[in-house]
Each structure stands twice: as C-alpha cells, then as structure tokens.
Amino acid sequence: MGGRKTEAICFTNNKGGSGKSTTCANLGYELSRAGKKVLFIDGDMQLNLSLSFFDEDRVLTLAGSGRTLYDAVKQKRDLTDMIIPTGYEGIDIVPSTTLMSQVDYDLFTMMQREYILRKCLKNVKDSGVYDYILIDAPPTLGIWVINILCASDYVILPIEASPWGFFGLANMFDFLNNLKDVTDVSIMGVLITKVDERKSYYKQTKDILGNYGSIHVFDTFIHVDSAIEWAQDSSVPVAVYKKNTRSAVEYRSLAEELICGSAH
Questions:
Q1: Are 221 and 202 within 8 A, CB to CB?
Q2: Deepest in the core among 14, 123, 206, 224, taking most CB within 10 A?
C-alpha cells in the first residue's frame, strides 16, 4: 500500500486536435520527473497516449493482449490487472485498443453504466500507489466520456489558440454542468495550447476565456513546437527527445503549477 492521496485527472474537450493526448503524456512525464508516481489510462481508440511511450508494434501487441482498458470495462474487471510498466521510472499505463470504438454500445445495457470505470478503478485509486491517475478521453460527449468524468476528481481542458479553438468548448461546459447530478468532478483549469505569438489568437483566446469568469486558466501555456511532433514520431515524451526545447520547459512549468496547487 502506497499511502498516497491519489488524484484522478482527465483531459477532455469536444474537439480533436486540441492537444489532449500530448498534454496528458508530457505533463505526466514531468510529474514523474518531479518525483510523483503516475498511472496513465488511455481512454481513446486512437491509442495516441499509448503511442507516446511505446512504438506502434508494441502498442498493437498490447492492444491485442486482452489486458486493456476495453477488456476491463467490458468484463467489469479490476484495472490493477491491466497495468503495464512503461520503462520510465514512476510511470505505468493501462493501454487502449481500437475496440474502444464500440465501448458506448457495450456500456448501454449495463446497470449504473455511468460508474463502470469508477468501479474498475476503485482498488487502484484506494491503494495509494499513485499520486496521479491521468486519463486521456476521446473528443466525444457520449456515455464513455461520462464514465471518465465520473471516475475523475478533476478535468483539464486543453484548447488550441486558433480560430477553431473554441469549437466545442461551450458544449463541454454545458455537458459538465448537466452532469452535476452524477459526478462532482470539477474543472481544474483550461490550458491554452499551440500558441503562436506572431498571431493574435492567443490574446483572443485569453480574452474570451476571461468572459467565463470563474473558470481557472493555467498561467502556463504551450507554444507551437516542432519538437513535439518529432517526439511523437519517436514515441517518446518531448523532454526525452530534446530536454530543454521550449515545450519541454513549458510542460515542466505546468507540472510545477499543478503540484503547487494553484489550479485548485
């Protein structure tokens, strides 16, 4: 028994390309470098979180192993059996599979279907082995994302600084508001990603977020950085690919901000 107080944080937005998987992977890596024990849960059929730590062959092998998130949810099994070490100190993962594409359908007939993931995760969370459980959600608003929210203590909403960055965010806020009867998950903060300060979108994004009043916006933001794509191509966190590239420093800063509790 680890004795830690484990916080479950999910990364979600009703829009693809907002930086959910990238943020989840690199923030988790920096939390581990700060001495925290991290469990990743890859909740998306695209497997991007798994691909952040393993090459494609290994990810596909894991996806077919019968020890995935989908297997646990479908069989209502304890997630402890599905945990795989990543090879990085302090970081484990529950891998995904493309079969996650049908998880909404599988959940539909289950009793108390909103809480299946929470039940699968209960022993892991109660064990106190991990400081953080980080869950990467797909860019949808179905029963599976409700499961992820019900299993989480906090939500981080990545939003890209672009003309389409806000597409889906208002829906996301409404969705969360409508779930108050089934989950007490709270918004930890909005993270602005893909910032290019030569363009005006970052300032526009900050101004619009300011109109939401009570929503916390992280002080740290993430610039556009080609090293992120190169790191993804190599299936490693950006700080492993290039230790002091700008985005690696920013994810380190985000981890410090989260640890210090300024977002709570």
A1: yes
A2: 14
